[in-house]
Amino acid sequence: MATAANNSQLYVKSYFAASIEEAMKRARVELGPEALLLNMRESPPEGRHLGECEAVFGTRPAPALPRCIPEAAAYPAADIRQRVKDLRLRSARIARGRNRTSYDLLSGSLCAAGVTRALADEIESAVHQRLRRREVVEIGRPGCAAGWSADVVVQETVEELESRFEVAPEIGRIAALVGPAGSGKSSALVKLAVTRGLMARRPVRLLSIDNYRIAAADQMRTYAAILGVPFTLAETTLALAQAIDSAPPETLLLIDTPGYAPASMEDSGRELAAFFENRQDLDTHLVLTASMRQADLDRSVDLFRAFQPAKLLFTRLDETDSTAAMFCEVARTGLPLSFLSTGQVIPEDLEAATKDRITPSLVRRLPEDLEAVA
Question: Domain residues of the chain, as ranges?
Fold first, then answer.
């Protein structure tokens, strides 16, 4: 290894090696035959680890050598790329150190709330971008700190969460509910008949093409009788079309459908799905249970895509304290939330979907997590 110094007259450089001869040879190779031997000695204690002997050479004028570069001056290209990468990583760590809470805990907190890892990482990255943009806006304002408080991080997180889904608490004049068996389609349909029909002083008619489940039509017929509204059981898609087309134009038509599984979808569901696809006047809501596992929700949504659902309606919110599965599904599909069923009571346990109903449980732990490392 060599060390270098310079004055106005000489470029001076020390060479350390196992012997004086080796040190002199290295100096001659690098500095050329014009180099002057200024001193040679045993290495001082502080330089002994570099070699047993030291030879000090000087040359005039000083060669154009970077003074801070080690003797093995030329790094391979791959080494240079690695050094650049290391610098970038170090810079990123320094930037993260400015607000450790917003960088280290957000994704983990969302995952703990039930959000999938991939989506949580996306949201964390987006929140970082929001904070950086916010920092640019705040530059120069009195009291602007380098880091952000937990309240600011939570606020930006909530805004990012709410930007990833929409709500549409409304139904068309001809609305159909589709979904897996046991998802609560029938009770949700009756709640809609009361809240969106009878309470709005609007004529209502219930239709059903669910002739696969035993007593399914009888249950819907009983509901219709209690509500005092007409009921029609259509055993074929042709009969369903006739029932729809013959209804008065101001009547709210609500259609109950069978709960298909993958096997029954292939067997009998394709015909009904094709009918729905060809009816542009149908407002189709896919009914799912909020307590379902994320993987089961994904499969159900993909199975019922054939029905061209326009919205998602979730039931059984009373069976879970998390809205993460609903959030992940609306974020994944891009379909808006229409209504939320929170229990079995008709019609009280049905509410219009709002973003405020979904996001609080996702960030419930975040303030505490952030404050823990503040």
Answer: 2-59, 77-162, 174-353
Q: Quick one: DSSP state of residue 182?
A: T
Global pTM?
0.69
Place of tokens 């696809």: 277
137 and 215 Cβ atoms separated by less than 8 Å:
no
Sheet hosting strand 36-42, strand order edge to edge:
2-6, 11-17, 53-59, 36-42
Q: Convert the pLDDT of each residue in 72-94 to its tens digit.
A: 444 456 566 666 656 655 554 44
Domain made up of 174-353: CATH architecture: 3-Layer(aba) Sandwich (3.40)
C-alpha 196/C-alpha 204 separation (Å) is: 9
Q: What is the CA radius of gyration of the chain?
A: 36
Alpha-carbon gap, residue 202 to 351, rounded angstroms: 19
Q: How far is CA 69 from CA 3, 53, 58, 64, 75, in A?
A: 10, 21, 18, 12, 10
Instruction: Report how far apart, in Å, the C-alpha atoms of 285 and of each of 100, 117, 179, 207, 213 are.
Output: 43, 28, 8, 15, 20
Cα(136)–Cα(141) distance, integer angstroms: 10
